[in-house]
Structure of Globin domain-containing protein:
Amino acid sequence: MKFLIVLALIGAAAATPLSADQAALVKGAWDKVKTSEVEILAAVFTAYPDIQAKFPAFAGKDLASVKGSAAFALHATRIVSFISEVISLSGNSATAPAIETLATELASNHKNRGVTQAQFNEFRTALTNYVSSNASWGDNVASAWNQAFDNVYAIIFARL
Ligand code: HEM
């Protein structure tokens, strides 16, 4: 019995890598939005102004006034490119270490900026809402998408 409980706990903690089919679903959804960098960051800031407040370049400013700036486009592109890179590496066990390296760097940069797990979860909610309303979405896509986030967030949260 104790053995089974230990197994269940290990199972809950370990990442479940995406299958090739799941990775294809995530890529398909992401491909529909990945060139809408500015709209994505604007949707995140609109839903969660506390995230905007952490960016020195945008804190305390009206979103409408910064959304069209080059600085905004640059930040939006950095964030979206990071996600594109992680997604392009998913669904392949050989590239799992590369995902771990990227997620570890992101955690360390953001830890230094005082970004919290709660804010990362807010970002996830806003991004998932954006993608699910701008790509074809169903239970299979949602489940693959959530698995991908669970895996990467497990790495980030262990280091944040
Ligand atoms: C959830 C709350 C988050 C906050 C408050 C936050 C905040 C910040 C800040 C303040 C910067 C520095 C901007 C500057 O140079 O002035 C930054 C950079 C960056 N963020 Fe975030 N971030 C968050 C989540 C994320 C997530 C989830 C990703 C990726 C999926 C991400 C990707 C990046 C990247 C790639 C950079 C540029 C490289 C770097 O300096 O680390 N951020 N972020």
Q: What stands out?
A: The radius of gyration is 17 Å. The chain has a mean pLDDT of 92. The domain at 19-157 is CATH 1.10.490.10 (Globin-like).
